[in-house]
Amino acid sequence: MTGVDLSDRDPRPVTGKLGHTEQLKARISTLEQQVIDLELAIQEPDDDLAAARAANRELMAQLNRHAD
């Protein structure tokens, strides 16, 4: 015996580990793209809301000017 403890060694072959790592990397990439897509989906309504609020402020300002 060489004195090296291999009791916690993963019995799967190295190629299996590499395949698993590649699967995890692919999953991470997919999740990162989903995050980007969701951030964009959230941003669009925020932009629309900001534009609507700006238009509302302008209309209220015009209304107030004509009320005087």
Primary descriptors:
rod-shaped; mainly alpha; 68 residues
Structure description:
Residues 1-12 have a biased composition (Basic and acidic residues). Residues 1-21 are annotated as: Disordered. The protein is 79% helix and 0% strand. The protein has 68 residues and is mostly helical. The radius of gyration is 29 Å and the shape is rod-shaped. The chain starts with 13 loop residues before the first helix and ends with a helix.
Question: Count of helical segments?
Answer: 1
Uncertain ranges: none
Number of strands: 0
Order of helices and strands: H
Taken together, the total number of domains comes to 1
Describe the secondary structure blueprint for this structure.
Layout: H1 14-67
Biased composition (Basic and acidic residues): 1-12
Region (Disordered): 1-21
